[in-house]
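Support request, please re-run this one:
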Amino acid sequence: IRTVSAERIADELRRMLVDRRRSRALRLMDEVGLLEQVLPEVRAMKGVAQGETHHPEGDVFEHTLLCMDHLDEPTFEVAFATLLHDVGKPVTAEVTDGILFARHAALGERMTRTICRRLKLSNEEAGRITWLVRSHMRFRDVRQMRESTLKRLFAEPYIDDLARVIRAD
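Re-run finished. Output below.
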């Protein structure tokens, strides 16, 4: 895999992530050691515990695969953003009274930008994917948002994609 071009790997990911068996493909990549080589940041999600109240399904990796299963005919950008939406959690995990992932979306955005560069995605694809990762927590406080903030949010060009990522999450 180290001799395969980044563009070819990205093309294979494009095919894999829009297929209805995308989570199975990711599991197979992990089983044969490809996930560690291609997307080590995703592999790092394995074993990272989450609070049972919000995530009874288990670790960040299992949660992410379940999110992938909840996507209905996604675009590559939506699928890749869903795969990477919690990529910042392994680095930001902090266990106190519970498990916190402070600023995981902001760190996830930076990590996602690096991954997109490594895979040589187009600027348009990378911009959309990183915005989706950065924004996936924005609806958390929607009931407390001012009307002007909501209007700006709903005017964003990728708001429909964001809704798909959030629904899957």
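Residues 105 and 134 are 5 Å apart (CA to CA). The chain has a mean pLDDT of 89.
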